[in-house]
Amino acid sequence: MTLDPTHLTISELRHMLDERELSAQELLGLHLERIEAADADVKAFLRLTTARAAEQAQAADRALRDGTAGPLAGIPMAVKDVLCVKGVETTAGSQILKGFKPPYTGTAVQRIFDAGAVMLGVTNCDEFAMGSSTENSGYFPTHNPWSLDRVPGGSSGGSAAAVAAGEATFSLGTDTGGSIRQPAALCGVIGMKPTYGRVSRYGLIAFASSLDQIGPFTRSVEDCALILQTMAGHDPLDSTCADRPNNVARGLHDGVERIRLGVPREYFEVKGMESGVRLAIQKALNTLEAAGAELVDVSLPHTDYGLAAYYIIAPAECSSNLARFDGVRYGMSEQDAQNITEAYMKTRRKGFGAEVRRRVMLGTYALSSGYYDAYYLKAQKVRTLIKQDFDDAFANCDAIVSATSPTVAFPIGSRTQDPLSMYLCDVLTLGGNLAGLPGISVPCGMSDGLPVGLQVLAPQWREDITLRVARAYELAADMRVEVALVD
Amino acid sequence: MRAVGWEVVIGMEVHVQPTTRTKMFCGCAIAPLNAPPNSHTCPVCLGLPGVLPVINKAAVEACLKTAVALNCEIPRHTKFDRKNYMYPDLPKGYQISQYDLPMSHDGHLEVGERRVRIRRVHLEEDTGKLVHAGDRLHKAWESFVDLNRAGVPLMEIVSEPDIRSAEEARDYAVALRTLLRTVGASEADMEKGQLRAEPNISVRRTGTTELGVKTELKNINSFRNLYRAIDFEVKRQIEALESGHDVVQETRGWSDAEQRTFSQRTKEFAEDYRYFPEPDLPPLELDPAWIEELRRALPELPEARRVRLVSQYALPLHDASLIAAERELADLFEGAVRAGADAKPAANWIIGEVAPGGSVPTINQLADVVKLVTSGSITRDQGREVLAESIRSQRSAGELVAERGFAQVSDESELEAIVREVIATNAKAAADYQAGKKQALGALMADLKKKAPNANPKMANEILQKLLQ
Q: Over 90: is that where the pLDDT of A171 sits?
């Protein structure tokens, strides 16, 4: 085990901080050095918040001395560019918000700050979280630390890559159709999407409101549980955030003895599934079985329709959510126009990238009078069927396991010309969003020298099961998230 | 305006600002009318990235109270929807409103002899305000956005097209205001924009059932203008149709200065608002126990009060209707009667003097004047003067009567002495009267009024005639 602090988990670092083997400010310094060394290649960060980080690290050291330190005191972390932080330029990866500094901090990030974490900076993502490769960023693409000519996945590619490259101990992302789990898989880190309604969305620049959730990237399952627990819980500012007991870490170390793991046959037959991925997953399932889990066959018969339903519902919501970016109050504003309509069109044409414009148009069309029933309403019906699929499956199992992504990280540029092939990246993850389920991706070996992710889905509000299964796998496989040695 | 051969069909859309301390979906206080622009805003009502709406319970309660008072059905499930359109006064690019599952539906309101059916009452948020150089946004050189009003709660009360004249439309709006004030749902002050009435007007040949092409009238800021605007619009439509032209479906504004309606926006193609359920707000489950509680706590409604005024005070239905239509008047009436005024004279004073005058006396001010006049202590004219002055100066009627020496002389012997003096100084007129020139009595009475202005004129007249027989 290396003792480079930039490779360690939160619990390991916390131990060192408590034992005064290291100060929060030293830890910050090491991470800034690492970023300096690696990020010119990886390009995980859009902006660094060094001054804020120094203040937070100083405060953490004080708290550690005083014995008032929160659970995340001094831990360096990164925030996806869709989460508002007061006074920090937050742009959703888009030119249209260039220069926008929110006057408030979102609930989840605030809770992380309150627990003592140190924010290093803002990470890159696909524009408005629309994409699966971070190539749709309005600024620049992020590179996979395991192979710099490949994508880190997306849309939270910067957050995943930062943790994978040793630039941050943990990071925050958002997951609308797989945007945490898929990049976690492609970058070889742990990533989790909570149950819809577990974490407040207040401060999350919305892509698709009924699907978006904030979640962590970490290097251990225990860390993942800790971050989730810190962020979770009722927020009076988000009416969709449930007032439920925060018990996500319950039974974390209880193992998988007699746990029934559902293996959905449809998830192993998806188009484009790589044999190396299938092999790695099979091996992971064997490991879990050996650890005492029972594997059961389940069926999710409407899987094929999930992608279509998702690409109606998400664009429909985004077409409305993105209407506020009109150049009137903040962000980019094209003034050279004869009238307000022309100003809107010029601002949005210049400010939004191609994929965002594509989805706004798709969504506008799907909601239009005369098409609403055929598209949006039908998609909502499919969504109900997909939820029903999961309910039926969970009648026979405690959790559902599969690959997170049908493929390993693909070369940069290889899918940008074909949106549909890009959309297929999320085929195994978006069902969890449509059904509002918690899901985690844990690394489970390599294929062609690139990480593969194992996805564990559980019924709503049962994050404890996903974490418990993931923890059992971590232990049984002696899995340790490795830092890719980019220099 | 009741043009022969034509029937007027009016449906009303009324936006009412419920009485709440804060906005519909955020914690911002409701801005007073002249607050500096954008002084009552926050990230939520500014539509900043990342913010979410939270429903204002007080607004929901006001809406439900209104719905119950309007005899509406209230469903168990209701939800909010997004109405999508882009305009600079709409910070999110959509308005949170209610589309297919409104807070309530299918009620009615009694207006005089007509029952106006209520299609729905729902909740939504107001937009901001644009201030620009020039009257139209696309021609303005520079425009400013004030978002103080953005997110202020609004109840939209939509009637069926059951209204048949401008008078009825005005009476409907007045009745609605009284109802809203009675249940405490809104101040409903039209001048302050707390009640905005938008009539949809069409005309059709008497006897036909198909609806004509309608126009919608906006920016009407008083009940009087509501009447005038509809009256104008009905005449305009009939004239157009009778001269072989069409009525164009459009939104028309009311110009107070020119006393006419003018075309604002033609609906050449229906705007597509792309309504869909607001994903940031879970559907509302309305607890029937809550609705029942609101129903029980409702005060006496104007309609019930009208019936009671007839039965309890033996008022004619016409009087009762006029008084019950305004809560303030009805309270004044009942208060004055409790304070000792007779019912019918009190009603006459309210209908004849108070209602047209505009300034409303206190219960005691009115009761005192009614009592003084009814007992014959002062004349009706003097009563009017005393009432007006007591409203103005807030002094008691008794004090004013004494100060002006209005107290009438009704003592018979005192009056007889005065009359004898009048006869003595007007011997010729007295003789003329006795000779049969009845009009000579006028001259005698005139002199009597001059000599003794406080003399009870009725009694003095009788004594005069008796003495001259």
A: yes
- Beta-carbon separation of B50 and A97 below 8 A: no
CATH number for the domain including B455?
1.10.10
Residue B218 inside a domain? The answer is: yes
- Residue A155 annotated as catalytic: yes
Distance from CA of B105 to the nearest CA of A (A): 23
The nearest alpha carbon in chain A to B54 belongs to: A239
Spell A217-227 as b/e; 16+ CB within 10 A means b: bbbbbbbbbbb
- Cβ of residue B280 closer than 8 Å to a chain A Cβ: yes
A80 tagged catalytic: yes
Its pTM stands at 0.89
Same domain, B220 and B96: yes
Is this prediction's ipTM beyond 0.90? Answer: yes
Residues B235 and B353 grouped into a single domain? no
Choose, from A155, A156, A159, A441, the residue flagged as catalytic: A155
Are B238 and B202 contained in the same domain? Answer: yes
Answer yes or no: is B313 within a domain: yes
Strands (E), B256-375: 260-266, 276-277, 284-285
- Residue B26 structural domain: 6-293
Judgement on whether residues B242 and B260 belong to the same structural domain of the protein:
yes
Within 13 Å and on the Cβ side, how many CA atoms surround A258?
1
The distance of A91 to chain B (nearest Cα, Å) reads 9
The answer to whether the Cβ–Cβ distance between B86 and A326 falls below 8 Å is: yes
pLDDT score recorded for residue B406: 74
B155 is a domain residue: yes
Angle A361-A364-A369 from CA coordinates, rounded to 5°: 140
**Residues B190, B105 share a domain:** yes
pLDDT tier at A268 (50, 70, 90 boundaries)? very high
The residue among B293, B317, B343 that closes a domain is: B293
- Under 8 Å between Cβ of B114 and B89: no
How many folded domains does chain B comprise?
A: 3
Mean pLDDT of chain A: 96
Does any CB of chain A come closer than 8 Å to the CB of residue B141? no
The residues, any chain, with a CB within 8 Å of residue A211's CB and separated by 6 or more, are A176, A177, A196, A310, A313, A314, A317, A433, A434
- Find, among A131, A237, A154, A4, the residue nearest to A142 by Cα: A154
For residue B59, the distance in angstroms to the closest alpha carbon of chain A comes to 16
Report yes or no on B1 lying in a domain.
no
Q: Which residue is catalytic, options A159, A171, A179, A405?
A: A179
Determine whether A299 is an active site residue.
no
pLDDT at B93 over 60: yes
Catalytic residue among A23, A43, A80, A220: A80
Pairing between β-strand A294-298 and β-strand A439-447 as defined by DSSP bridges? unpaired
Residue B416 is predicted with a pLDDT of 87
- Choose the mutation target among A83, A329, A373, A375 for the interface with B, i.e. most B CBs under 10 Å: A329
* Residues B130 and B235 grouped into a single domain: yes
Q: Which two tokens stand for residue B335?
A: 């208060």
Q: Which residues contact B432 (CB under 8 A, 6 or more apart)?
A: B440
Question: At residue B227, what is the residue type?
Answer: Y
> Are residues B24 and B69 part of one domain?
yes
Pairing of strands A260-264, A399-403: parallel
